[in-house]
Amino acid sequence: MEKKKYPAGLDIRVLVPIISLSLSLILHILLPANKNYTQKEFTYYTGFLILMLVIYTVVMIITIFHKKFRKKMAHKSWFIGVAFLLLNLYNLATIKFMLIPSIYFPSPEIIFKVFIKDGAFLLKCLGYSGKLLVTGYLSGCILGILTGILVGWSTSWNYWINPVIKVIGPIPSTAWVPIALVAFPTSFTASVFLIGLAVWFPTTVLTSSGISGVKQAYFEVSSTLGASTIQNIFKIAVPSAMPSIFIGIFNGTCASFLTLMTAEMLGVKYGLGWYINWQKDMLSYPNVYAGLITIAVTFSLLITLLFRARDKILVWQKGVIKW
Amino acid sequence: MVKDINGKIEALHVHKYFIKPEGEKVYALNDVNVAIKPGEFISLIGPSGCGKTTFLRLVAGLDKANSGEVTLDGEKIVNAGYERGLVFQDPTLFPWLNIKENVAYGLKTRKVYKDKKNEVNEFIHLVGLDGFEKSYPHQLSGGMAQRAALARALVNHPKVLLLDEPFGALDAFTRMNMQDELLKIWKDRKTTMIMVTHDVDEAIYLSDRIVVMSARPAKIEDIIDVDMGRPRGRDMPEFLNMRTKILQILDFAGKREEPEYMI
After folding, report:
1. I want to staple A144 with a disulfide (CB 3.0 to 4.6 A). Which of A177, A200, B15, B193 is the partner?
2. Burial, A1: exposed, middle or buried (Cβ in 10 Å; 0-12, 13-18, 19+)?
3. How many domains is chain B built from?
4. Do A226 and B156 touch (CB under 8 A)?
5. How far B253 CA lies from chain A's nearest CA (Å)?
6. B61 vs chain A: nearest CA distance in angstroms?
7. Residues 30-89, chain A: which have Cβ within 8 Å of B?
8. Domains, chain A, ranges and CATH?
9. A194-241: per-residue pLDDT in tens?
């Protein structure tokens, strides 16, 4: 059979980001900086706008020949266009008209400059934070799922551990900072503990409630098919509780970000939280923004990854539960 | 071909009671004695609360009798095991596994999947679900899901297949269709079948013998031999006579007022 060819075509909406970007670029080049603007001028924002313009022009060309991609991009175009428009307005409000105090609200080109000049150090901080987060997060997740299974499955574990969870769990893990910093040999291990604790609690609670909520009939059928108790736990209880476990992990993820930042601002050397705090003390707000943008990009990337993993593992839920 | 598929079930003085919150004992089974021959198709019929399902659960090993014992081929039943397969009214397919994985579940838990892989497809074919291997349970109709549940139980080659109102939730046409399928499988495999049903016609259509049970006191009222050849016409005079007889035993025949229990 001949491969079906889609007719080439242009969705007018795909042009929105390009128009928005062109407008930004024209205004940025034509309007001079405010006469009170004392800082040196850079071309980083211009460069950024030109780069984006090139990217979205290429995207536009691809959409002409690719129907599915065209549909997707057309749908997103308004949002992207408005986002660039807002950035444009911010640029006007800062460097061009100086409507807001420039020390706290630096112009885009200054923020972009930080990424160029201080990028390597930001990456180093990111790496440090990442190491801390991954270690704490994974240990919290694994321990949380294990405790959740034990508490949800066995009545004696439930008897001994559940009260502990109820008392320890609700304490925000950042409240442990003073103790953690003296109880652990290094600030790194202390932070790992705090992040782990932050993830452990919601994961444990939702895993155990998921496990104890599994339909009895599943275990009965499984037993008459020859499954042992261990198999009932890992082949019935855990997969069946997976939706609940994922909610726990999600809550834990958000808690871990919060704890990571707090821990770094309070005692850890290096890391993004520390960087932001340090730059704030030095009153270099452009660096603070650069740090915040780095955090936003990384964390949303992590959350997206988690969503992808869930969609893959819980594919059977489609049609059972509305997402 | 004939392996050691026996599947003889015997119940001796089986008592099973539940304790009400007030402390009163309620007997679900009161001195039940029954012997089921290997390869026999038995139906348990009776009003709600007569202990049919309780009996099935004892055979499955999901509950324990308070006194007396149930044996399979002379061995006392203490636990659930794959030689006694179970199919509920609700298909209870595992929603996180697709149809093929559901059917393969028993083989995988018993760690014999590698040697018996092809049997999974055989049984999917046997119940007429070819092409649905990759579907998830929620994508199947009630009848199809019940077929999958049947395949999942059969793939283990159980000596006894326990059916707890397996077709109760299906529409009349699908039900009759499934009854024929079940008979075909039974003739083919000669598995002992114990079926709980509310449907007198279904019991007569399928069974070698029908155990009629009563609710208060919970005991076996009568065991009826269905000595009719197969296939049985649902409108044959013997069929209709037998139905009247069973309804009489159940005390539903000839009543003019609304029965408290609908069949």
Report:
1. A200
2. exposed
3. 1
4. yes
5. 35
6. 8
7. none
8. 12-110 (no CATH), 119-317 (1.10.3720.10)
9. 999 999 999 999 999 999 999 999 999 999 999 999 999 999 999 999
